[in-house]
Structure prediction request, 342 residues.
Amino acid sequence: NSIMHIHGKQRENDESDQELMSTLQGYLLKTLGYKALDILLNNELLYSQLNLPGKNTDKKQDAKNFAESRTSTERSWIMENVIKRKSVASGLKQLIFALKSRDSEKFIEAFHTASSVCSLRLKKIDNKKLRNLVFNIRRAMMEKLKNEHNPTLILQYVVLVLHSQASGGLMHMPSKHIPKLLTLLESRLSQDAMNKVKRYGELLNTLGESAYDKKGDHAESSSNSDQLDEKVESGKLQKLRSVAKRFGISRDSIETLLEEDFDDEDLLDLNEDDLVDCGIPSKQAKLIVKAVEGLDDDAGSDEEEAAESSKQDKYAPLKKELAQLTLDLKAIGANPKAAIVG
Prediction:
């Protein structure tokens, strides 16, 4: 529906649109789908009066953390030790199977069944509440954009806000698919806004990890930048990103970790299955686990530091351009209506 609103209701979705829709549906199941599963599992855990191994938490606190995400190990423990009713076990197993199949229709059917046997009522949202929800989420993204310093997230927020303004809907997608969404918006954005957003993406691709250098030129003060960067990523994630190339870890994998907002403790506890559940390929998951294990002992060689310093000097003009475009994109995101045409 969101894609049709952008194209116009008269036009059918073409092959490239269908490919994008399929990708987004898979991502929804991988993220929000597992969040829905965790809510059902947390519901059963709460009423069982049991605690996960090593977690003696207050039940009142558990009730507040109803939507807390679970690792694959925790999900398995709950299924094996908490779920006693056959109808509930069957419903949840069907839901897990539907999630692994990445079939959205099977998931919706299985989720309705699982919710019913878990005694959770699903309430249909009316159009007015849906419009208010979309508006509030868009405003929340605009607020986050004001104080954001991570270039990838700045680009992501701006494109998602523009899409929401143009379509009246929302997209839930990983940053690696933002260029596809930007292409979709091309006929709805002013030429100036499109040129700036496209150029920003080109600079990110050219600069690579150099775009994330805290010592780069920002319009805001460096002290505020450091504080915000610490909120965006943990210390170990910063170290992991600096050694990613050496270990063969892809940028997509790093971006996925950033989107999951892991802290240092999360990274140390993650195993390969947890990473695969986040959508990271199995081979990449093994490399990440290996890299995380050696972070504290790996200080990097003098040669690598010298090469990195030389690269920073070469990229200085591009980083200056990126800093100016960062201000331009934040201005576009603060007033998306002005960037929309047609």
